[in-house]
Amino acid sequence: MAKISSRAELESWRESILAGRDLSKPCITVCGGTGCRALASEGVSTAFGEELRRAGLEAKVDLRMTGCHGFCERGPIVVIFPERIFYPGVTSNDIPEIICKTIVGGEVIERLLYEDPLTGEKIVHEPAVPFYREQQRILMKDNGLIDPKKIEDYIAVGGYKALAKALFEMTPEEIIEEVKRSGLRGRGGAGFPTGRKWEICRRAKGEVKYVICNADEGDPGAYQDRSLVEGNPHSILEGIIIGAHAIGAHEGFIYIRNEYPLAVEHISLAAQQAEEYGFLGEDILGSGFDFTFKVHRGSGAFVCGEETALMASVEGRVGEPRRRPPYPAQEGLWGRPTNINNVKTWATVRHIINNGAEWYSGIGTETSKGTMVFSLVGKVNNTGLVEVPMGATLRHLIYDIGGGIRGGKKFKAVQTGGPSGGCIPESLLDLPIDYERLTEAGSMMGSGGMIVMDEDTCMVDMARYFLGFSTDESCGKCTACREGGKRMYAILDDMTHGRGREGDIELLQELSEAMKDGALCALGGTAPNPVLTTMRYFRDEYEAHIREKRCPAGVCKDLISFYIIPENCPGCGLCLRACPEGAISGEKGKPHVIDPDECIRCGICREVCNLDAIGVR
Amino acid sequence: MEIEVDKIDALVDEYGGEHRALTTILQDIQDEHHYLPKEALQRVSERMGLPLIQVYQVAKFYKAFSLEPRGKHLITVCLGTACHVRGGVPIVEQLGRSLDIAPGETTKDRRFTLETVNCLGCCALGPVMVVDGEYHGKMAASRVDRVLKRCIEAKEATANG
Q1: Interface of A with B in 43-82 (CB under 8 A)
Q2: Does ipTM exceed 0.90?
Q3: d(CA B152, CA B158)
């Protein structure tokens, strides 16, 4: 295929791709996201291929390995088109039956269907599964439909249409105006208006300008950016090219985590294809606009998600942040004006250009427009990626989509915004999610991680965990973050070991303020947030740790002991055999006993016991 | 440690000796040797015309780089928030007991290296343990030894067979 050199050629290519596709032809899609791959989806896909060959159905049935569907916990996910029959958790053993019954016989296999954990109802079609039904998918929509390695698949779903529109129908100023009017705000966490950011960079003096896609998704518990880069890389690339055109940049980068090998592979391949077909390089689509794009792998440093640190890293230096101003839009990469946006922000651009600012600003709340992709994880029944309009409530997300808390436990808190965010308690479950509301609650949007915690989570331990994270990831350049983080961690660590003292809460408060005021970048400035929110909403847990040397959730090892509840223990010996320290004794058939002096409180006995016979106090 | 000077020179030249390619070059060396040998850093510094201290600083700053040789098998446990709340720590502790090493260390026989990572982005499958690139989701401390044994036996059988 030769380079596409005009808008008309792009459209005729699209038409020829679509003409070659029969939408009524059965198509088996297997999810190829990292989550499903970890659950052996590649083997499932290969087995489908072999079985189709064996049955002589290769020509009659399409097989496609798609991007991430988002319902990762139930993987490997198989969806059969055109009906969209949904089979989660498929193994290679199920394949002959699926081919024989569903593909050939048109019959639905009851045992493979998804069962709603709340109602016990079996659900046949993907869109009817509550996890998907309650979502409004814009960015994630095509993930499950396309093979991310095939540019033709992206073209078939309207790919690069927005780019053509932006290049041939709009001036750079009009593009910026459209994005401004849409109300799109940065999806990396801080929520700065995207159109305004572009405008500042466009107006900045200088011939050479850069655009960067920040895919250094470091927030633990958030993986939506990975899923988008893996599942629909061209959608991000299209947004970047449009943005570069609007800003007047001719060179761009994606900075992507090295921990995401599949995403690196897919975006690199997409860039190669885009160049081959004329969406990147010189004279894009015959418009006269030139743009080159490079993939830069990160090397494992959380602070590189901060834009000035990220730029230092792209330049081949140590990823240390610097003081702002000057902002990257004025002096960025190699001192040139640079515009940096998050993966989701770039992926949204094409939808705004295609459907208009009014359409986009019609979704969401007064101040936060559009949809947001959250990774709903932790102690919730349905874990995975969820895209909802801004303004949806936490309750809607956790209960209607997430199916509530696992194992019938009680909800305690939801953590948003990663190590910069906070823990939101049950009393705020009806909070509509937008930038302002989350900030008012002491947390933040962040990149969309949403970690649900139940009654078995200790909030002091959680605060200690996040401080440990921030301290570990602190680059060490400024004193407030380097020293402040260490001191706060030491206090929290003492508390979890029963060495908490009166006045610790006040001291943490003081240190938090100092860090907020004194830190050079957002890593240090927001690191106290998990501590401040847990102290604000769960002060009683702090007090129990300090005053009573007690961990109410039964997590902090030095403050708990395990014992066997004789009434529940049949003396099966499971825990006795599993105990790594030999701390459990007892005769078969009679209640066992734990020797508290030998016990290291690893919790393995509790894990293996099926009868709730291990208690914690 | 024997390093092939020509290979490193070729690598540096491939990126046109540009300073911005430093991390990329180190990544390639790390991929091949599973750590950054001292001699390799020295050669990179010479070939790129960068002070050794600058190369060392970058090698030391980023977590993906190791300045120590690593074990034959790399075990990584995710301690992202989602894995943490679902019990990632007990898994690291159990591995530490079984292998008699702390996270970041390598066993004396250089067979295993144990590492923790801040998030692998497989949060829905947490807690996650990765053995030589093979993901094991929904792990439990009580299953660690069994899974590890099975996994290593299978790998070594393939390697020897």
Answers
A1: 72-73, 75
A2: yes
A3: 10
